[in-house]
Amino acid sequence: MASVSLYPLASLEQIEKSPSREDGLSEGLEEDLRAFGCKLIHQAGVLLKQKQVAVATAQILFQRFWFVTSMKQFGIGDIGMGALYLASKLEECPIRMRDLINVYDLLLQRTAHTLAVQTTSPHKGEFKYAPMSYFGNTFYDLKDALVVAEMQILKRLGFQVHVVLPYGTLVNYLRVLGLTSREDVCSRAWGYLNDALQTPVYALYPVPTIVSAAILLTTRFLGIPLPSTPPNCWWELFDANWEDVWSVCGYIMRLYRPRPLEDQTRVLGMVSKKGVRQWLEDNPPSRST
Amino acid sequence: MSTDEPRAGPSTPGTKRSRWDVDDMPSEQPQKPVAKKRLKSKPPPDSQSPASVPSSAHVSRQASMERRPAHSIYVPPRTFHPPIVPSRSVYCYERLNSIEEGSYGVVFRARDKETGDIVALKKLKLEEEKHGFPITALREINALMSCKHENVVGIREVVVGDTLTQVFIVMDFIEHDLKTLLTVMPAPFLQSEVKTLMLQLLSAVAFCHERWILHRDLKTSNLLMNNRGTIKVADFGLARRYGDPVGVGGLTQLVVTLWYRAPEILLGATTYSTAVDMWSVGCIFAELLLKEPLFQAKGEIELISMIFKLLGPPTSTTWPEYQTLPLAKTVNLPAPHPSQLRQKFPYITTAGVDLLSQLLTYDPEQRITAEEALKHPYFSESPYPKHPDLFGSFPSAAAGEKRQKPYRSPPAPARAPDYKLLTEFDMP
User: Which Pfam families does UniProt cross-reference here (chain B) (predicted)?
Assistant: First the structure.
């Protein structure tokens, strides 16, 4: 690894005013929708037995996308599907369109079912997947959406789809800190990195900062002391600075906070842009702020 | 691990930084804001101090990186990362003339309306794509973006037209391609010029291989040359990332224009690697010396027999794995005879023949790598490589300065995606 690879990160303006927030979505709701879109990508990846590198790449492209596009314009379901399709090509493990569409159809149906159970018809019973009809339009609609989504991701990211994954860096850093013999440290830190894929951090901070955050959370959780008083701070070894590391930790920990049922339910109806538009109509943004 | 060791190296910012500040503060004023900026958590975007970024951003980046001992060179500051920028419209460019058309699409010469720069626009063929955006085009764009090198054609951006099927790669415009040049030149390149060109080619190939990119279509028509004696490797349309070991499904044999194709691909290997590019480099080297392609075969069988005739048939020492290759059984070996390279190239030095024979080595394991070839004695013996500035200049056919009909070389192999999905139907 001789080259310094400069992957794109959101600029300050893009962070301050994301397109979705400009359209009236609240910061918290955008965060929830990003996380839910990434969960769908993850679930699709598991069902397709896709390699984790492709799934992680897809999630990072997905996170970048929402710094240049509003969720009012494209649905998180479609873009997630497009991102996974694109990332699979980028990681040289392409998947069939049909398989991806079938899997997303299942996930969307399941989402709709969960939503129905939690809101309108609580006695609907167990989820049962209804395969798409041979002559129906579902397949072609999803296929069109997939092709458009893939192209839109490429176009709106300016074809800068280079992604650097954090796992190799984590191994190196744990080695430097002499923590590789602790299996609990490795797997917990690895887990934090994976969970962080549901947050925008990979589009906001360089990899060393994110990896340092994962190590910080891990060592704090397991009570492992590391040199942390200036001028001897371990994260400085990795060119991370404290405020950024702390901020990444915040993004990750927010994923685990208990959520009221209402918050869990509202994203289920907003997987498509139609749902987002409906929500925006029902909850018009207060322009005064 | 203690961080307050004074000689603890670049990864200990705490101590190094303060010492460096004290050392340099009085002498070099303009550098100070750069050092300061790094300490802040999120510098505002306009704090990119003009003093540290003078004219060309690229050069100054490298320069200022060297002046930053406190930061690991592997971790550039946050502000060095590009922002997320959507593609611009193709209407930012004014079309001038078309340069060439191939299986991959059309190449235009165009002018950037903002800066006036002359660029090459390569339009990708995207009609009738059954699998979304073609993986080959993705590989080409990614390969170009990750191989920024003096001797690799520079990609500027990717722009889009009105519809989703219009995508153009914007590259630096280079006046010549080496193939056209070789046909119109009155005399072949001098030895000193060949050495310069080969060094440039080898450093580009070494750079790509180091970044895990195989070019897979090196040939003289894909080597562009400007009027300042610099060649640039172009057309990464068949390039792809490779791994060790090679990924699932192996690699396709449908690569490399026939005349430049390595014997292991001809014989059906699916796990080839960087050595295939080195064989092509050998063919290019020979072509520069001969002023015409080395193996002008019409088909694969003819090519194999030409190779065997020139280099002698492979033996168990020159190519131990030969018999295990899928198509080896179908080829009849000629009677054993030694390599004819010396007779074919009577005018180059022993070192030159040695380099050529190391590039045209049968066994991919024994074939010289780009890194090794750069250190070959051929380049350090007289006549020395000529300085690029001393090269002559020629009228540029691509810029429409003079039209010439080059001889025809066979086209690149059809661009079937090398995954097995193509054979499967995407219909219900």
Answer: Pkinase
- pLDDT tens series, chain A, 289 aa: 334 578 999 988 888 888 998 898 888 999 999 999 999 999 999 999 999 999 999 999 999 999 999 999 999 999 999 999 999 999 888 999 999 999 999 999 999 988 888 887 777 778 888 888 888 888 889 999 999 999 999 999 999 998 999 999 999 999 999 998 989 999 999 999 999 999 999 999 999 999 999 999 999 999 998 988 877 889 988 988 899 999 999 999 999 999 888 888 888 989 888 888 988 888 887 654 4
Rounded to the nearest angstrom, the minimum Cα separation between A52 and chain B is: 15
Beta-ladder partners of B177:
B224
Task: Give the span between the Cα atoms of B332 and B379, in whole angstroms.
Answer: 37
Q: Which among A9, A178, A203 has the least Cβ separation from residue B78?
A: A9
- B418 in catalytic set: no
Same domain (yes/no): A240, A119? no
Site from B15, B58, B133 to mutate, A interface, most A CB atoms within 10 angstroms:
B133
Give the model confidence (pLDDT) of B216-274 as tens digits: 999 998 999 988 889 999 888 888 888 766 655 567 777 788 999 999 999 988 888 89
Q: Is there a single domain that holds both residue A41 and residue A125?
A: yes
Considering B24, B46, B217, B389, which one is annotated as catalytic?
B217
Can you give the residue range of the structural domain that contains B263? 176-390
CA separation (Å) from A144 to A40, A137, A270, B9, B208? 19, 11, 20, 54, 36
Please give the pLDDT value at position B386. 86
User: Taking Cα atoms as reference points, which of B1, B18, B16, B10 lies closest to residue A227?
Assistant: B1
> Is residue A1, in this structure, part of any structural domain at all?
no
Of the partner residues A150, A162, A234, the one whose CB lies closest to the CB of residue B142: A162
Residue B112 falls inside a structural domain: yes
Core vs surface per residue A138-148: b (16+ CB within 10 A) or e: ebeebbebbbb
Question: Are B206 and B164 members of one domain?
Answer: no
Dihedral sign, Cα of residue A167, residue A169, residue A175, residue A179:
negative
For chain B, what is the domain count?
2
Q: Does A16 touch chain B (CB under 8 A)?
A: no
**A64 inside 8 A of chain B by CB:** yes
Q: Which residues of A touch B88 (CB under 8 A)?
A: 158
The ranges of chain B with pLDDT < 50 are 1-69, 403-404, 420-428
In a domain, B191, yes or no: yes
